[in-house]
Design a protein that fits this description.
The structure is a homodimer.
Chain A: E1 31-35, H1 50-56, H2 64-71, E2 75-80, H3 114-121, E3 127-132, H4 138-144, E4 147-150, E5 170-175, H5 178-189, E6 201-205, H6 206-209, H7 214-219, H8 221-231, E7 234-237, H9 244-270, H10 278-286, H11 290-311, E8 315-320, H12 333-353, E9 357-365, E10 368-375, H13 381-393
Parallel strand pairs in A: 1-2, 1-3, 6-7, 6-8
Antiparallel strand pairs in A: 3-5, 4-5, 4-9, 8-10, 9-10
Chain lengths: ~400, ~400
């Protein structure tokens, strides 16, 4: 059964099509939604752009990530709104509107997996698939008070989903509680290729925490204490290579070049209307030089090697997911842009490395949720989920 | 069965939902589509605007005009593209693209019932519902080489369809041939409340014909001769009250005011993205004064009385549907605007009066179709269809 009542404006209003799921299975009692980037047989794939939607046609295949949940018995309830072509982080779609943040209705949900976070935080389904290229699962998880993971790059297949920047794109998911999150993770992730040991080495990147306003750091204090109580004392470290400035720019350059390779021909051939910010980012991306891209690639390799060395096989970084609670819905584009640019500095750590990051909804500020994250080495995704359980359930 | 292959880009890509039609009935061998302004249970109603679509939800009722075709056994194949909020005449939707003109693929289809005309002219269905407020059935019928009618205002109910300007809005339909058109008309129109006599008085409005370039008048000569041969000699007359200048402006003022009353709160509350031209027309409409509107209403009443007197109970005006064949797809917005403004002068005759006008695809120019119209007194719709049969079938 598809949800027709959609008080959260979380779903694309597609007519319901029967999507069969296994009658039994580990997730047979759960409902799920999928970001409108994933193909689901019987539905179009809109990608948050009306012309992309109009040209989609009805898909005849279902993306493997969606199929995995169906095979585990979870019932599909609909396709959720996404920021336009997934190339934004606010959850405001100029064409299709803004899904409601179920945990803070006066604030943006965050994006680009906006509708998935909206649906789960509003209780319209138990879990939902999103994608995270530059923060599109982590940002809305933090904003909407959800557990959300950006898995190791390549860990969950993204066939049958619209690309943004393939060397960054990942398939993640949300849940309201750690038990549900763990059950979904079991199905989506399987066993870790590089499981963490029982005793992990907790790391606290002082440069990342230093990006936050003191009142935000303070808002995380109780959560930090809880994490330390569960996992042991944290050692200070530095996350960035040199500083966050080159991290930020090299991340944007690589993502932008790939985004232009993905969507540039659609944009130049059809000149689709693009919302504020999105148009500018694609224009910026189209003008990047090969030299900039080559230099950014080399930087990424150096950064990844440094982070891999720092984490080793037992290191887990604990860092703020986002710079603050979600901005108010009434924020103007320029203040949202500033917030987004701050956020990229935190989010690019896992993004550039391709390492998994799990956001836990353990903090609040101004009555709104605020996520704190665990970031581990490549292939430690399930171990991070297990750590989250230890932190939350004791 | 819904058409999934949509080479003409005529349909909104909604997942197919079973819509039951009568097993037997006068139209049981026909397929039809409906402009995405009409509610069809199981589908959203998008109205050519992505935010309107996103807020639509799934409709639980079917518009009576659609139901009439279902009850006659016609099979529903899908919802067709419309110009944005039906407030345009070109068939180019900035968000969802341009449906293909099946009779002249290098030319615009015309709108706002663009997808319906595209689907029928491309052979994807036998008939299709459109709406005509200021020309939205007549323009695409002329451009796509189809029979198309703007019925007497109020003749076919428009409940369950998105309004534009209610005192102008009508429900019309298209077909490729006069036989099919007559069969659909029989179901949609029933018997005439003011049938024309067997011998009609043909009128040729010299002022309307005088708006055309000589080569366009010439392109209509054979069709005109055919009409005269079937219906008798035409007497010259004048269509406009005074001139086309006040006709044009009063038509735009009344339509604009009503369009703003219909969509103004949606636009001011949600600031949806609006395509080029549409945004400007709504802005212009929002600024109309009550004095302008009152004066235009009085003008419309005078014009309607004059046209009713001219036509009496047996008068049928024969006039060009549009100023020329459809503009090329490569036309820029300003030349399309100029064409549209010329077209309004022809189209506002039936629009201001609320009288029926049937466009017949009898002429061609530059290898593209060109419609010629019969315009009769209020309630003579079916009689016009019968005249079309006499003209075409002899």
């Amino acid at each position: 059964m598809l949800l027709h009542a959609d008080p959260a404006h979380a779903f694309m209003p597609y007519p319901p099509v029967a999507v069969s799921s296994a009658r039994t299975g580990a997730l047979a009692d759960l409902t799920f939604a999928a970001k409108d980037l994933f193909d689901v047989a019987g539905y179009p794939t809109g990608g948050g752009n009306p012309l992309m939607l109009a040209q989609s046609g009805i898909k005849t295949r279902t993306a493997p990530a969606v199929q995995a949940l169906l095979d585990a018995g979870a019932r599909f309830v609909g396709k959720t709104h996404t920021d336009e072509l997934a190339f934004s982080m606010n959850g405001r779609n100029a064409h299709f509107g803004t899904p409601r943040n179920g945990a803070a209705p006066d604030r943006i949900p965050g994006g680009s997996s906006s509708g998935s976070a909206s649906a789960v935080s509003s209780g319209l389904c138990d879990t939902a698939l999103g994608t995270d290229t530059g923060g599109s699962v982590r940002a809305p998880a933090s904003h909407c008070g959800l557990y959300g993971i950006r898995p190791t790059h390549g860990r969950i297949p993204l066939h049958g989903a619209l690309d943004l920047s393939p060397s960054f794109d990942t398939c993640g998911f949300f849940a309201r509680d750690v038990q549900t999150f763990s059950r979904v993770a079991e199905v989506m992730l399987g066993a870790d290729p590089a499981a963490l040991p029982a005793r992990v080495r907790l790391l606290r990147p002082t440069d990342a925490w230093g990006l936050l306003a003191p009142e935000v750091v303070q808002a995380h204090e109780a959560a930090m204490a809880r994490i330390v109580a569960a996992l042991g004392q944290a050692t200070d470290c530095t996350a960035a290579l040199e500083s966050f400035e080159p991290m930020y720019w090299n991340h944007r350059i690589l993502q932008g070049r790939e985004a232009w390779m993905t969507d540039g021909s659609f944009i130049t051939r059809h000149a689709p209307p693009l919302g504020p910010g999105v148009a500018e980012r694609f224009a910026w991306s189209s003008a990047l030089s090969d030299e900039q891209v080559a230099s950014a690639r080399a930087y990424r390799a150096r950064f990844r090697a440094q982070l891999a060395a720092l984490l080793g096989t037992d290191g887990v970084m604990v860092l703020p997911t986002m710079p603050d609670v979600a901005p108010l819905l009434s924020s103007d584009e320029s203040s949202l842009d500033a917030y987004r640019n701050d956020a990229i500095r935190l989010l690019c750590i896992a993004g550039l490395a391709g390492f998994p990051q799990l956001s836990l909804p353990l903090s609040t500020r101004l009555g709104a949720p605020l996520g704190i994250s665990l970031l581990g080495p490549a292939g430690s995704d399930q171990s991070l989920v297990a750590l989250a359980r230890r932190i939350v359930q004791g």
